[in-house]
Amino acid sequence: MGESMSISFAGKVVVVTGGATGIGEATAKLLADLGAAVAVLDRDAAAGDRTARALRSSGKRSEFFECDVASAAQVEKAVNSAAAAFDGIDVLVSNAGIQRYGDVVGTTDAVWDEVMSVNLKGCFHAAKYAVPHMMKRASGAIVVVGSVQTYTAVGNSAAYVTAKHALLGLVRAMSLDYAPNNIRVNCVCPGAIDTPMLRWAASLDPDPEKVLATCSRMHALGRVGKPEEVANAIAFLASDWASFVTGAALVVDGGMLVPTGGMGFQESGTGAATKR
């Protein structure tokens, strides 16, 4: 009874793309803490190696495999190397992503292709080469990291919003295709999370702290999320606790998508007026 009351990844092999920093790093650490052997995949060799070494130094099983998810050949090599190193794959966390800004007129073909290659095609590549290993086990779980922008849009982000919307379609397609193989596929949709990518985006403004304060205010809970909080949701979806969940999208956004008109309207519109 005790074992069934806690999420465990004992004996499981997990592959995390974009596992060197941010949500990916937090997920790699959490799943390793829960007993998994973790393959960290990232194009940042120094950061990825550092993450895997930190896990090993704390007694966990982890290896780093350098790859750019935009490259099918690199992903095939990294995923198959991970499967060979740990004797199979049980879970894929497809997290690698980049942010680029621009509307359709201002976005070059090169930038559009870069965003699609990493954020969308990268997930396709990771799943393409991980699923056959899961089929050998007759079970598996894939968790794709989407965004609140899987459902909504932020201005001047045409390529990013499109890619994040498309990921949910890919999740739903794969959930149907691999259900007969007992492979579940789900999506987690974070709000603004305190990651290097958020800090980079804020740094583009003359007043980064003002941007971060605005990001905090747009969540009903009044703050940005922590990478560990998204990792918790990923762990649930990847675990046996979610054994009857597939094709779903779990929003982890501190209530960002709830308020009509956004938090500014909640604070000063009719909703607020009626409280006076």
Q: What does the largest sheet look like?
A: 7 strands, parallel
Mean pLDDT: 94
Low-confidence stretches: none
The structure class reads alpha/beta
- What shape does the CA trace take? globular
Helix content: 40-55%
Q: Proportion of β residues?
A: 5-15%
Query: Whole-Å distance between the termini?
Result: 51 Å
Which H/E pattern describes the elements?
A: EHEHEHEHEHEHHHEHH
Total count of strands: 7
Strand order across the largest sheet: 3-2-1-4-5-6-7
How many individual helices?
Answer: 10
Radius of gyration: 19 Å
Give a brief outline of the structure.
It contains ten helices and seven strands. It has 276 residues and is an alpha/beta fold. The protein is globular.
Describe the fold and architecture.
With 276 residues, the protein is of the alpha/beta class. It has helices at residues 22-33, 45-57, 72-86, 109-137, 158-178, 196-203, 208-217, 227-238, 262-268, 270-273, and strands at 13-17, 37-42, 62-66, 91-94, 140-145, 183-190, 249-252. The protein has a seven-stranded parallel β-sheet, with helices on both faces. The model has no long low-confidence stretch (mean pLDDT 94).
List the helices and strands and how they pair.
Elements: E1 13-17, H1 22-33, E2 37-42, H2 45-57, E3 62-66, H3 72-86, E4 91-94, H4 109-137, E5 140-145, H5 158-178, E6 183-190, H6 196-203, H7 208-217, H8 227-238, E7 249-252, H9 262-268, H10 270-273
Helix pairs in contact: 1-8, 3-4, 4-5, 6-7
